Amino acid sequence: MWCKTSSILISFVVIAVSGNCALGECPSADLTGDCFVDYEDFAVMAGQWLTGDPCIPDDMAYIPGGTFEMGDSFGEGVASERPVHTVTLDSFLIGKYKVSNQQYCDFLNWADDNGWITVTDDVVYQASSGTSYSYCDTHSANIYSQIDYSGGVFTVRSKAGRSMANDPMVMMSWYGAAAYCNWRSQQEGYESCYDIADPNWECDFSKRGYRLATEAEWEYAARGGEHDPYYRFPWGDTISHSQANYYSGPGFPYDVSPTRLYHPDWDDGIYPYTSVVGSFSPNGYGLYDMSGNVWEWCNDWYQYNYYTGRPNPDVNPSGPVDGSYRVIRGGGWDDYAYACRVAYRDLSRPDCRCINHGFRLVLDLE
Question: 20 to 30 A from 247, CA-CA: which of 68, 195, 196, 355?
Fold first, then answer.
């Protein structure tokens, strides 16, 4: 974590001499990482001043509050993506990247040393829960996991000669994602948002700590500030392998990739075909992999017709009060372009440890 406020004014004064994009050197005032100094960079600066909290973790991006039209504005999705409705959100911070295998491995080693977890049949569970709340599989439990466990130590594997340390964590449940949020909050002196003594692990939004994004926050952030016109994907209306790690196939006119099937750079013949986080260009908010690579767990319970009958505008919605499934968003390395649209909604059981599920963090500003 580093504090930017003291240097931001100077950065903006010296924009003309602080970077050379042609040489891959972005201006120092480029706070979103897109190699341009624009409105979004000023929004970050303003957010740091107005919140009175100038210290933003290096791996988090500031998302300015605002109002947007949530849902399928193209009329090409399923009924659960409609009706399009107005949502207003407060500002928040969100991870620039999905949580990596190495980051999750660091959590597991700390959690093992501090009695937060137990390992039964090579599966990680919440301590003292028996097998009620699974966090993740190790490689011995499921070959798709990139985490080894031996001699009481968790380590990240290599696959086809490539370290998987910086690929997104997979084979981890919603509970495992929420537990990671509580751990990082504890490490940085924040409050824990998830009550792990509650059977549903409810999130206390009144506490300031790391948590999973609400479905509305996720879609708003994924759109990258582009609301007029609305984009189909985080960067525009078409998709190709130059922009995301997904399964390219026929039947979708907006899939314009010259290469088909799995992404050729990451198809090594050994599942999962995940890519290193940050391998593709960020969206307008400086967020990477909002479409493709792995799905992202959201905080919300899933309800097929949740959009129907909601207030309009809807202010800071946090989803249904209960359910059987949690929301996942963004599509994965094995999904068609259709699932990578920013309006697409899907669901998964919270205890699912899946080959294409991952997550990123949110931190409230107040």
Answer: 68
Number of domains in the chain: 2
In whole angstroms, what is the distance from residue 295 CA to residue 297 CA? 7
d(CA 330, CA 104): 20
Q: Which domain holds residue 106?
A: 101-183
**What's the pTM?**
0.88
315 domain-assigned? no
Is residue 171 in a domain? yes
pLDDT in tens, 239-289: 999 999 999 999 999 999 999 999 999 999 999 999 999 999 999 999 999
Residue 32 lies in a domain: yes
Structure confidence at residue 366 (pLDDT): 75
| 94, 118, 186 from 134: Cα distances, Å | 25, 10, 20
Tell me the β-bridge partners of 120. 123
Q: Name which of 311, 322, 316, 327 is nearest 364 in CA terms.
A: 316
Residues near 321 by Cβ (< 8 Å), separated by ≥ 6?
Answer: 301
Can you say whether the dihedral through the CA atoms of 34, 38, 44, 49 is positive or negative? positive
Domain finish residue from 158, 183, 208: 183
